[in-house]
């Protein structure tokens, strides 16, 4: 009994310095969180079933996420498209005496004569995920709608005679813009059947504001500076330089030679002038479209200590720090796992590929509650809406063993008969 402390009720049993390694798995479902406290499923805390002690390492073993994200949304600041009319079709120069055409010309030229910001047209596309043809149709409708809405509002307030002419003749709205998708070049072609225009990619609204549908602005403090996806034009193949339309003097300049463009039998001619003496105008973006959205998102995992183990670079920004030092502007231990998005909406994907793991030395003593955050590289939270997801954590637990010294005394039965 010399090995035991007999002055205590509970004797101290020495550690044998040997351990058993155990794998423990914890399945976590986003729907199990307190939805009142954590309404957004990509940012929540949750209590685990038990205390986990002597945890040597932890990694993401399996996961299942819904692919229902919006590539185009308010939070992504890529719903707004800004353009101007620069060479408006003049019916007076082409011998057209239609009162509606004259009223339209008067209203549009009056709008264009205003200051730079007020002469711009702002088209908003619907939130969601698009294929190229859907985007072409959406932009066609939204650009014409933007012109029509501003025309009627401006004429009603400042040009009542022209407004009365439009209403009396049942004018249905502006319909000169046309957008088509070239499946070979993978570019969107922007056209107008009678007037010149400018794609205003240099507008400050793309760079400094997140413009909502009601005209108010919302800045997202989580987002890091983004030089590649700075607004809707970046997804459509434009640079930050504004682009003026080209007057189409011959159909061969804008024909799709691989086949039909918008409808069966058009032989690739997607744009035609529709007014006497007019020529169509068109713009071709310098780059291909990009509608796929982010390829990865990151998981951050914390408890009474951080489980994050992945260092992450940050987008370059022009700052005093970057100009005067040669250090990185990245983040150390920024995330716990990097998860690829292998599919497009609407679907569900499952994966269990190898992920980095967090190693604790010494092992973490105990934890039970964890905080989960799912975000993109730019810091914006992943938006799963009302869809649920789940993931599986693998814990490596070491169990210390008790030292035992058992003497094996085998009785000598021959002594009983001596």
Give your account of this protein's structure.
With 418 residues, this protein is of the alpha+beta class. It folds into 2 domains: 15-69 and 294-402, Jelly Rolls, CATH 2.60.120; 80-283, no CATH class. It is 15% helix and 31% strand. The protein has 6 helices and 17 strands. Strands 1, 2, 11, 14, 15, 16 and 17 form a 7-stranded antiparallel beta sheet that branches. The protein has a 4-stranded antiparallel beta sheet with strand order 4-3-7-8. A 4-stranded antiparallel beta sheet has the order 5-6-10-9. A hairpin with a 4-residue loop joins β5 (177-182) and β6. It starts with 14 loop residues before the first strand and ends in a 16-residue tail after the last strand. Mean pLDDT is 86; it is low at 213-219.
Topology:
Layout: E1 15-29, E2 43-67, E3 80-87, H1 99-112, E4 121-124, H2 132-158, H3 160-168, E5 177-182, E6 187-192, E7 196-199, H4 205-208, H5 232-236, E8 243-244, E9 246-247, E10 281-283, E11 296-302, E12 310-312, H6 320-324, E13 331-335, E14 337-340, E15 347-351, E16 357-375, E17 390-402
Antiparallel strand pairs: 1-17, 2-15, 2-16, 2-17, 3-4, 3-7, 5-6, 6-10, 7-8, 9-10, 11-14, 11-16, 12-13
Helix pairs in contact: 1-3, 2-3
